[in-house]
């Protein structure tokens, strides 16, 4: 693949930023969101802080609460992971 004609953004925020913004918009804290998704509060907090990834299972749970499609969360995580890999020189 010809890389010189590819666009690579300078930065991509972790999907936890979008989750935090959505929770703020919904007036919901991590604890309530954790209860509604059935995930540990610590897991939700580590995602919001950008220290943990959103898994397919989580994306489906998030969709049910946020009404943001699971594919959005999964694509966002995949793009973030590719950005990190490029930044670290892995690809």
TrEMBL record:
CDD domains: HTH_XRE. Coiled coil: none annotated. The keyword DNA-binding applies. GO terms for molecular function: DNA binding. Keywords: DNA-binding. Signal peptide: none annotated. It comes from the Bacteria. NCBIfam families: antidote_HigA (TIGR02607). PANTHER family: ANTITOXIN HIGA-1. This is Addiction module antidote protein, HigA family. It comes from Chitinophaga filiformis. The lineage of its organism: Bacteria, Pseudomonadati, Bacteroidota, Chitinophagia, Chitinophagales.
């Amino acid at each position: 693949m010809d890389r010189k004609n590819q666009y690579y953004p300078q930065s991509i925020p972790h999907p936890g930023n979008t989750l935090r913004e959505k929770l703020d918009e919904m007036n919901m804290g991590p604890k309530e969101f954790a209860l509604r998704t059935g995930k540990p509060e610590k897991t939700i907090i580590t995602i919001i802080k950008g220290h943990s990834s959103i898994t397919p299972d989580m994306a489906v749970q998030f969709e049910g609460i946020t009404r943001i499609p699971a594919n959005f969360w999964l694509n966002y995580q995949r793009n973030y992971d590719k950005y990190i890999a490029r930044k670290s020189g892995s690809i």
